[in-house]
Amino acid sequence: MAHILIAEDEANIARFIAKGLTKAGHTSDVAADGMFALQSALHGAYDLIVLDVGLPTIDGFAILAALRESKNTTPVIMCTARTSSEDTVHGLTGGADDYLAKPFQVSELVARVELRLRDHQQHRAEAAPATEALPLRAGAIELDAHARTAMVGDRRVDLSAREFMLAELFVTHAGTVLSRDQILERVWGLDSDGRSNVVEVYVRYLRQKFGAESIETVRGLGYRMLQDPPVG
Ligand code: CA
Q1: CA of residue 85 to ligand 1 center, whole Å
Q2: What is the pLDDT of residues 199-226, one digit of tens each?
Q3: Å from CA of 84 to ligand 1 middle
Q4: What HEC string does the chain produce?
Q5: Do 8 and 112 belong to one domain?
Q6: Which of 94, 127, 160 is the last residue of a domain?
């Protein structure tokens, strides 16, 4: 299951794409505005971005350029109504991983999404062959998946299964804001549920164990663990 950002201002098209991705077992968020799409792409934990070229405020090419400039390597599939090959070249040299001209079949887009996700995973596996030995660490917080404990500086703390999953999500996304919905989905496998405060409760548990300042609340957006979180 992958989490995908759909940057598309035409609601109907966005809905079709989201539906196709859901059917293929993925989750997605829609950004209908360029500025918002860029912010989401930079701060959300997305596995892939479906990026329309023609977007309000800033266009897809500018978004792509900004993403790559900030060393964000999330795979991007560009979509556009323009069919000139010049655009294709522009998109691909600008760091897009693939390119799709509108109108396209959603099934074709989904197939390409799967392909890019596989490519990217393989790439990452090759880039980091010693994945198993890679410590789960953010600054002074280091997780031990086998023992299901964390070292916080030189203090060892035990974690419940759910606390560990949440801690792992924060540590592997250190520096990134995670929305409450993303956390719910990744740790509890739940769809957004406006009434549940389970995320807040578990963030509190982790703060008690790691330090009150270890996880920041980013008002209106979610939570973030810094790359070198203050512990205590
Ligand atoms: Ca558009």
Answers
A1: 18
A2: 999 999 999 999 999 999 998 889 999 9
A3: 16
A4: CCEEEEECCCHHHHHHHHHHHHHCCCEEEEECCHHHHHHHHHHCCCCEEEEECCCCCCCHHHHHHHHHHCCCCCCEEEEECCCCHHHHHHHHHCCCCEEEECCCCHHHHHHHHHHHHHHHHHHHHHHCCCHHHCCEEECCEEEECCCCEEEECCEEEECCHHHHHHHHHHHHCCCCEECHHHHHHHHHCCCCCCCCCHHHHHHHHHHHHHCCCCEEEECCCEEEECCCCCCC
A5: yes
A6: 127
